[in-house]
Amino acid sequence: MNYYEILGVESTATAEEIKEAYRNKAKELHPDTLPRDVNETVRKLAEEKFKELNHAYEILSDADKKREYDAELSNLQRANLMKKIRDFFNNGQLSDAVECAKRLYVLLPEDAECCDIYAEVLQELAIALEETKTAENLTQAKEYLTTALEVVKSAEIKNQITANLELLKSRTGTTGGRERREGETQTIKITTERAFQMLRGGEAGIRAWNQFRAMENYIPSLEGVDLSGQILINANLSGANLKNSKFIKAVFREVNFSNSNLTECDFTGTEFTNANFNNADIESANLTSVFCYASSFANANLQNAILNQSKWFVVFGGTNKSGCFESGYLITDFQGANLSGASVIGASLRECNLEGATLTRTNFSNADLTGANLKNTTIVDTDFKGTDLSKADLTGANAYYFAFHDGNTKINETKGID
């Protein structure tokens, strides 16, 4: 029990209320009120409680000591509530997490971190309610997101919440606070700006974006957006128009770009893991110094793209479930891709799959194609000067002799060029 609880008062009690509570408690707990023949153990317990009461009053009746104690108590309560919020959140008990976060916010309304925690758990509960798709829960979700916007301090979290709220409003047809009536045509659509907010909104924003993609059959234009430096995980950008957009030094993990328009985009220094670019149009895009592995560019259009100094594989090694060590390559798949006119100077495509790719006038000078699968590729004026083709397989390639080579081209154990 804290000192306020010992005295039976709230932490907001005035000095007079504290004094009055002490007098009443002192009369109740004073050892002299006990019968003379009371058990010695009971008497000692009463004396300890009375000492505890006196000490509590000594602290709370002194303004300086009370101020110091309040600060300590506040920090302790803050830590305890944060732990409870974390535990409830991890156990999926979002309603309980919100209640604790609200108590934390009421306790420390000027603490930016406490405000943001309250806003974040409100947002998480709102998202969970949205997924049920019932009218009652959607209304409740809107209320939670509105409250979250009122308390949030972080600009980044505010953007996430705003994006989620705008998406929810578009789904329910809310206009000026009015719900869409039955049979009424949905006229609100997600704009480029709203979509951009979602994609920059962290995990919650991406979840909102993916929910939108699952619910709607249109995609707002994302042409020219700047997502440089952003981390996008599990985002569905398939079929999107991202022409001339910037993704410089971004991180994309398990992002779906299939069938999307990525012409003239700038991916300089970007990292891709398990990304899907199948059938995407990436013509004239800049992929300089990209690091990509376990990804697929099958049948993608990479004509005139720049892939200089990029790396398209990673070596892995470790112990498997059986306790045995295993290693290998996580590669990128370019099967059937069109790299005509692309610049791949100094790039590392070790073990990568380029089977059936079109390599007309592709510049692979000083690139590493060790062990790459180049079966059935179309080779016309392809530049292999200084290229490492060791152990690569060119079986079925139309005409290796149509490529450019020099004394630095390595063909040790290369297949298909006998």
UniProtKB/TrEMBL annotation:
Source species, domain of life: Bacteria
Gene3D superfamilies membership: DnaJ domain (1.10.287.110), E3 ubiquitin-protein ligase SopA (2.160.20.80)
SUPFAM superfamilies named among the record's database cross-references: Chaperone J-domain, Pentapeptide repeat-like
Span of domain J: 2-73
Name the UniProt record assigns to this protein: Pentapeptide repeat-containing protein
Organism: Woronichinia naegeliana WA131
